[in-house]
Amino acid sequence: MKKSNIILIAACALLFASCNTMSHTRGELYPKMYEAKPVALLVMPPINNSNNVEAKDLLYTSISKPLAEAGYYVISPHLAMEIFKAESAYDAENFIEGNVGMFGKVFGADAVIFSVIDEWKKKGFGIETKITYIVKSTRSNEVLFDRTCDLYLNLSDDNYYGGGIAGALANIAVSAINTALTDHIVAARMCNQFIFEDIPQGKYRAEYMQDQETPAREKDIQTTVKR
């Protein structure tokens, strides 16, 4: 097969894949965000269903940044955490199915952000995370935005140490060192990036209420990324 034909086929394949992953718009997937127009967001402590006891605190510290970058006012997570603990509201699982209007009254938040960690563990040569994110209005109690990210962070070394038992042991050893030195929050930040890349832009961005036709990926994401 001629090289030009190979390039053309590859280009068509990439275009087809792009169309499949970008078959919706933000307006189609998240119409209630445009209706509710939340400005101030409150990040709730994550709900941790994984076996990683540190996952809750690690994720909590990383969610605010992408939301602020998307044009929202995010209530200080440090200040919020002090109030959560003082008011025995640290366990978000007690509120996710209930009425969140009280958080609007106490914090002045238009919406609250829930996150549910179902997986956060070492697997093979990397870290596997599965996190669901839910944005609920404090006015209507409706879900405005929800997505799940099933992400595998590949930490394997680019160098290959050969075949056989010795090579396999060397690769396992390098992977173990990389994982030990890698802050697991890197995986959480990547989940946040994939999740909030398609959130309708907030009041403090020029695209506010102008991005309904912006192409968006599927709501539920499954991906592998390299550190």
Summarize the structure.
Helices cover 39% and strands 25% of the residues. With 227 residues, the protein is of the alpha/beta class. Strands 2, 3, 4, 5, 6, 7 and 9 form a 7-stranded mixed sheet that branches. Strands 1-8 form a two-stranded antiparallel sheet.
Assigned CATH architecture of the domain at 24-120 and 131-146 and 184-211:
3-Layer(aba) Sandwich
Radius of gyration from CA coordinates: 20 Å
Low-pLDDT windows of residues: 3-20, 166-170, 176-181
Count of distinct strands: 9
Shape: globular
Class by alpha and beta content: alpha/beta
Largest sheet composition: 7 strands, mixed
Please work out how many helical segments DSSP would assign.
Answer: 9
Question: H/E element string?
Answer: HEHHEEHHEHHEEEHHEE
Q: What is the CA–CA distance across the termini?
A: 35 Å
CATH fold title of the domain at 24-120 and 131-146 and 184-211: Rossmann fold
Give helix % range: 25-40%
Average pLDDT number = 84
CATH level-1 class of the domain at 24-120 and 131-146 and 184-211: Alpha Beta
β-sheet strand percentage: 15-25%
Give your account of this protein's structure:
The protein has helices spanning 3-21, 26-29, 31-36, 55-60, 64-69, 77-86, 101-107, 164-181, 185-196, and strands at residues 24-25, 40-43, 47-48, 73-74, 111-123, 126-137, 143-154, 215-216, 220-226. With 227 residues, the chain is of the alpha/beta class. The protein has a domain at 24-120 and 131-146 and 184-211: Rossmann fold. The strands form 2 sheets. Strands 2, 3, 4, 5, 6, 7 and 9 form a 7-stranded mixed β-sheet that branches. Strand 5 and strand 6 (126-137) form a beta hairpin.
